[in-house]
Amino acid sequence: MKNFTYHxxxxxxxxxxxxxxxxxxxxxxxxxTDLLDRQKDYVSQPxxxxxxxxxxxxxxxxxxxxxxGVFPPIITIxxxxxxxxxxxxxxxxxxxxxxxxxxxxxxxxxxxxxTLGGSLCQRNRCWYFRDEHVNCLLKGGRKCFAQxxxxxxxxxxxxxxxxxxxxxSTLAPVLIAFGASAEIAGPKGTRTTPVEKLYHAPVKExxxxxxxxxxxxxxxxxxxxxxxxxxxxxxxxxEVKQKETSDxxxxxxxxxxxxxKDSKIAKGVRVVLGHVAPTPLVSEAAAKSLxxxxxTEANAGLAGEAAVEGAxxxxxNRYKVQLLKVAVKRxxxxxxxxxxxxxx
Length: 344
Ligand SMILES: Cc1cc2nc3c(=O)[nH]c(=O)nc-3n(C[C@H](O)[C@H](O)[C@H](O)COP(=O)(O)OP(=O)(O)OC[C@H]3O[C@@H](n4cnc5c(N)ncnc54)[C@H](O)[C@@H]3O)c2cc1C
Prior knowledge:
alpha+beta, 4-stranded antiparallel beta sheet, globular
């Protein structure tokens, strides 16, 4: 690992002046489960590491407020909250998609160290990017080696993308399906942006998978299932994995909608796909297919079919198209409270 200077400020205000206006020289450290791996592999070689571990207060807390008439409660989660605390939180009882996604990340060791902010800002897992000897597009090279190489775990929505990574965070698609917003601190103060806008498809070394500036810090995220009064907020995340533990999914689908009082008709449907494109992908087609309908097996299946419209898989990952159809169907059924009959 290359030598670096280490800073441990105790407030966000004291953190900001330590950051650079360009990517590369300085890195923020949260739980370190992604950054330290990259440093040990010489994929990231910062001169300065600014630890967020000394920052307390709301940065490390989760809170819930229920203004009159609002249900489920509005939740705020500090970026420094650990994944295990999200996976085991009682505050999130109405938000099973987030609990499920956090509980499926890696294994207990990573969930004990890793944080919400680290999950949302982690770098991609493309094996070409993670190999110190390969100079891919995201490391200043001129070529994406996955386009014609070993691409079985890469994007299937590839159109217009010179780099075909998949976005790595499984919490990002959930938060996008919830319509969450992110609070970000930077040199000009604090700004709020939809989590959906936090992501873009990077194509060069001077970009990250997220749209934060190098001198900004993600402080917290906030969301509410807020539908009409007395509506039930239904949500689920379904991942297809090669291994039960310690692995990223091959595909992920998050489905969220409301059932109005005494109704079984899905309203305000949101479908967000993970691990199939360089960003979390909002599927308008799948949402439209389910909107205003009863969530039967047949209708959930149609939403799955709609979700794969426009997929352009690479040479080795056509199998993901079928996995994605099934993931959307099962996420929709789980959200509607259907017993997972596929588990036998
Ligand atoms: C085997 C394995 C399986 C995994 N499976 C999954 C999975 O299924 N889904 C999933 O989502 N993740 C998965 N992960 C990744 C895991 O979620 C991340 O390693 C973890 O969330 C990173 O959190 P951290 O706090 O350790 O981040 P760090 O390693 O400390 O930081 C990661 C990156 O985020 C930046 N960062 C951290 N906090 C902030 C902040 N507040 N503001 C701005 N930038 C910040 C850092 O600068 C760094 O670049 C897996 C990891 C392993 C090892």
